[in-house]
Structures are given as C-alpha cells and as structure tokens.
Design goal:
alpha+beta, 6 strands
C-alpha cells in the first residue's frame, strides 16, 4: 500500500517537509517561499492573482518534476519592470 508523504491538498498534491509551498489558488507547487511569492501578481485586496506559466517564465521561474523553482544564479529580485511585463502579458 502506498501512502503520500507530507500535507495533502484537496487537489491531490502532497509534499514532504516544510520548505515546499503549494498554492491553494492555482494548485502549483514551489520549492520555497521566494518562487511562491514571485508567482503572485497585483495588489493585496485589489487585483491579487496567480501568474500564468508564461508570466512565471518571464520572472525566471522554471518547472521540473511538478515543482516550480528559480534556477541557481537566476535574478532573485522581483523588479517593478518585470511585474509590469507580466501584467501587460495578461
């Protein structure tokens, strides 16, 4: 009998450990807080939403084995310019 490790989500995703972040909005899984935060766009309480895959790619995020991450050496700051590019692409 197999058993999933970690905290399960209603979408069926489960993950081990406490550093993994899973979005209950878009049900994507991230390798940590920074990639998770980078996938959120807009202002809190106004127009906050999850980024599309294209928008996450603009921000330097990549997906492998079902988890989104920022490659080592990739730009780690979210600039106003990159956020505006993402919002314009929506």
């Amino acid at each position: 009998m197999s058993r999933k490790l970690g905290v399960p989500c209603e979408c069926g995703a489960a993950w081990p450990g406490t550093r993994i972040c899973h979005c209950i909005g878009c049900h994507r899984t991230f390798t940590g807080e920074r990639p998770f935060d980078a996938h959120r766009l807009g202002n809190h309480g106004v127009d906050r939403r999850c980024a599309t895959e294209a928008e996450m790619s603009i921000k330097g995020l990549r997906e492998r084995a079902g988890r989104w991450y920022r490659p080592v050496g990739a730009k780690r700051t979210i600039t106003e310019e990159s956020t505006n590019e993402c919002l314009a692409a929506a």
